[in-house]
Design brief:
With 167 residues, the protein is of the alpha/beta class. The chain has two domains: 90 residues, 3-Layer(aba) Sandwich (Oxidized Rhodanese, domain 1), CATH 3.40.250.10; 56 residues. It is 46% helix and 11% strand. The protein has seven helices and five strands. The chain has a five-stranded parallel β-sheet with strand order 1-5-4-2-3, with helices on both faces. Strand 2, helix 2 and strand 3 form a beta-alpha-beta unit. Helix 5 runs antiparallel to helix 6. The protein is elongated. The protein starts with a strand and ends in a 10-residue tail after the last helix.
Length: 167
C-alpha cells in the first residue's frame, strides 16, 4: 500500500496528475473536506465512479484511514494500480476546519454535553428513569466507534443551519 504525503497529493492534484477522493459519507463530506476533493461514499462504492480517473493517481482520504484502506483494496481487486492513501486523514488535517460557525464536531460535543446535563438534572431531581440517557449514549458511542460511522454526527450535519456549509 502506497502512502502519499498530503502535500505531494495536493501538488499532483494541482498539476492534473492526481485526484483526491474522499470516501466518507456525504454528510461528513458536506461538513468539511479538502478543497478539490471528490466525494464517493464508502457505502456506495462502484467501480464505475473511479474509472474516469484510471489515468491519474487516485489519492484516498477518509476520517481515520480505515475506509480509505478498504476502498483501496476493492480498487486493487477491480484492476486499479495507481492508488495511494493520504498520510494525514481528516481527523489529523487542520486545514479543513471551518472559519465560520460551529463545526459539526463542536455541535456534536455540545449535544452530548446537553444530554448529559439533562440526565444529571433529571436523575437527581425528577426520576431514576433518566438513567436511560447515559446508557443509550454509552451504547451508541461504543457501537459507532466499532463501525467507524457516527449517525448522530451525520444527523447533525443534515440540520438546516448546516446544509449550506462548504468545507
Amino acid at each position: 500500500m502506497k502512502i502519499i504525503s498530503n502535500e505531494s497529493a495536493y501538488s499532483a492534484f494541482l498539476k492534473g496528475d492526481a485526484v483526491i477522493i474522499d470516501v466518507r459519507e456525504q454528510a461528513e463530506f458536506k461538513d468539511s473536506h479538502l478543497p478539490g476533493a471528490i466525494n464517493f461514499p464508502f457505502t456506495k462504492y462502484q467501480k464505475a465512479y473511479f474509472e474516469p480517473f484510471n489515468d491519474k493517481q487516485i489519492c484516498l482520504i477518509c476520517q481515520s484511514g480505515r475506509r480509505a484502506k478498504a476502498i483501496l483494496e476493492k480498487l486493487k481487486e477491480d484492476g486499479f494500480s495507481n492508488l495511494a492513501i493520504m498520510e494525514k486523514q481528516m481527523e489529523n488535517v487542520s486545514e479543513h476546519k471551518q472559519s465560520h460557525g460551529w463545526t459539526i464536531d463542536r455541535q456534536f460535543r455540545m449535544t452530548l454535553g446537553t444530554l448529559m446535563l439533562i440526565f444529571l438534572l433529571g436523575y437527581f431531581n425528577a426520576s431514576e428513569y433518566f438513567i436511560i440517557i447515559p446508557i443509550i449514549l454509552c451504547t451508541g458511542l461504543i457501537f459507532t466507534s466499532i463501525i467507524d460511522r457516527c449517525y448522530m454526527r451525520m444527523g447533525i450535519a443534515l440540520l438546516p443551519w448546516n446544509r449550506g456549509k462548504n468545507g
